[in-house]
Specification:
Blueprint lengths: L1 E10 L2 E11 L4 E5 L6 H9 L6 E6 L2 E2 L5 H7 E4 L11 H6 L14 H13 L15 H14 L4 E5 L7 H18 L2 E5 L3 H7 L2 E4 L7 E3 L1 H4 L2 H8 L14
Parallel strand pairs: 3-8, 3-9, 6-7, 7-8
Antiparallel strand pairs: 1-2, 1-4, 4-5, 9-10
């Protein structure tokens, strides 16, 4: 589904992504974890097209994302960015409808089908009751659900999320992650998340990628790669691993 080959990117003279390769199957839920500065957000931006790689290729269903129109890329990849700048005087429905932009021509207005898709996405994310609320009146958890609804409105097979639980309290963190997991399972979309929270990543993703500085990436299940030895070495601090008493994970 997603194929990344020999990807290379640098900021100024600093290599951030160096000879990166990845294969992700349709319907997978993958978490990118690792210390600050290892390229998690950069990789999300490269896949979404916000940044252009210096070399290498990124393909979704064999479509090279660097050689297709932005509107066509928007039909393949949707993004929920970290702390985005939002039009605070927009209503929730107006913001969610922006997810239909890849399907509209120049000066074309949304039609009945577009509105139906937006309302479907709002129903899935349980924000229908917020339809006429202004963005600046929403809580952090409500705003994150609205952004996920806008992403679903794009109807893209690949959803990217950059720190989806940042600045949320424990209850809202779990609520947002439960929503992402249900969307991934019920709609068989591919989800890639950049995360700092190793506990949430391990709970919700069966496959993790640990990005590190100047070392090969570590790819595997939480049970195999989230060990005290690996994490203590990567994060340069003592790390203990405990079993979740409810789930046994």
């Amino acid at each position: 589904m997603l194929t990344i080959d020999n990807l290379f990117f640098r900021y100024d003279d600093v290599d951030i992504i160096n000879n990166f390769n990845l294969r992700v199957d349709q319907g997978e839920m993958l978490a990118l974890v690792g210390p600050n500065g290892t390229g998690k957000t950069t990789l999300i931006k490269l896949i979404s097209g916000v940044l252009k790689p210096e070399r290498g290729s990124i393909k979704v269903f064999n479509n090279d994302l660097s050689s297709i129109k932005p509107s066509d890329r928007g039909k393949l990849v949707s993004v929920v960015p970290q702390n985005p700048s939002l039009p605070l005087d927009f209503r929730v429905l107006d913001l969610v409808m922006m997810g239909r932009n890849p399907y509209l021509g120049l000066l074309q207005w949304e039609g009945k089908k577009d509105v139906e898709i937006a309302r479907w996405a709002m129903s899935v994310t349980k924000v229908c009751h917020l339809e006429n609320r202004l963005i600046n009146t929403l809580s952090g958890g409500e705003r994150q659900r609205v952004l996920i609804a806008m992403s679903l409105t794009q109807k893209a097979p690949l959803i990217l999320l950059d720190e989806p639980t940042s600045n949320l309290d424990l209850g809202h963190q779990t609520g947002v992650m439960d929503l992402i997991k249900s969307v991934q399972q019920e709609m068989c979309v591919t989800v890639i998340m950049a995360m700092h929270d190793l506990t949430l990543a391990a709970q919700y993703s069966k496959r993790l990628i640990i990005l590190t500085k100047n070392r090969p990436l570590i790819d595997g299940t939480p049970e195999n790669i989230l060990t005290s030895e690996i994490l203590s070495d990567i994060y340069e601090t003592s790390v203990g691993i405990l079993t979740n008493p409810q789930q046994g994970t």
